[in-house]
């Protein structure tokens, strides 16, 4: 399922520990649509190259297993970890993300094995939006 022109639900729910992952709820999927529209797609469009998401939505069990904080935005589908392949690549992505109004937080994270990635998260009101009515004729 496509969430935006260059991002899919499969990509944002993929994990090395599939047994610990859940199927996201409708609200969590809507959060991922928002994350893609407001953060990931604008980043992808700005750099003009594929953006690899290494971790998006996480179930509580998966989040605990990978050492995520208990209130992680990954639990709501509002965060993504993005692959970076050099300091220059990381700096470029960081600067683009920092300038996006929907970005709540962007930071570098690293694992004990030395791998590095960018964590980016957004905020969204917990209720799905209500659709507008277009009543031209009254
Ligand atoms: Zn993260």
CATH architecture label name: 2-Layer Sandwich
Outline the low-pLDDT stretches: none
Which cofactor or ligand species appear? zinc ion
Largest sheet: 4 strands, antiparallel
Please provide the ordered H/E string of secondary-structure elements.
Answer: EEHHEHEHEE
Report the principal-axis shape.
Answer: globular
- Strand composition percent: 15-25%
Q: What is the CATH domain class? A: Alpha Beta
- Structural Rg: 16 Å
- The number of E-state strands comes to 6
Topology (SSEs and partners):
Layout: E1 2-4, E2 7-8, H1 9-13, H2 26-47, E3 53-55, H3 60-65, E4 79-83, H4 87-99, E5 103-110, E6 116-122
Antiparallel strand pairs: 1-2, 3-4, 4-6, 5-6
Helix pairs in contact: 2-4
The protein binds zinc ion (ZN).
